């Protein structure tokens, strides 16, 4: 496996170095520019568009962050980029636009959002764009299916799994209990073989993170670090942090 030291050299700014109170919104150009200026690696999220592209946005719906409502995947790129945000004059970026902005100034970690529905169109589009990007880039997902597809069809791309130990809360209620247990145990390892893990900081250490760091000698990043308690826990059990709300 290729040397991934670049992945853990600098703290990773969660959705960019954002501050909504100052009009710098998550996953927006100003947040990414601020992360670059601070020499932080960048984590971001991508959602599918109605016309088959990848848009940099966390939620499956527009409601929380924009002045409109409805699903992101029911709008074209042109439609999405015309929608104002609630707290900034920025507009959404496509993944290709983000690649042009970052241009390997700092490492980039892209989370492929998924609803665990077997749809792989977004994964294929991300892989297509990533193949032409010459910077330091890692792709990851909570869903093993995109990562298994990357292993099989784009093995040269750095891939990771985002995970936690409990999968508690309403967000995960749609998943069967057995699936949640398998996700926490990285039971999909044979099909995904992730190069790194991104693990919930409150759930560290876990059997999986200890195995990755000690036996497999692969990096573990933790999310999302927001306070001194999280920072201390991460320092003991992870190789780097994904952070927000402070300057790491």
TrEMBL record:
Gene Ontology MF annotations: phosphoric diester hydrolase activity
Highest taxon of the lineage: Bacteria
Domain GP-PDE: 9-248
GO annotation, biological process: lipid metabolic process
Pfam families, sorted: GDPD
Record-given protein name: Glycerophosphodiester phosphodiesterase
Organism: Phreatobacter aquaticus
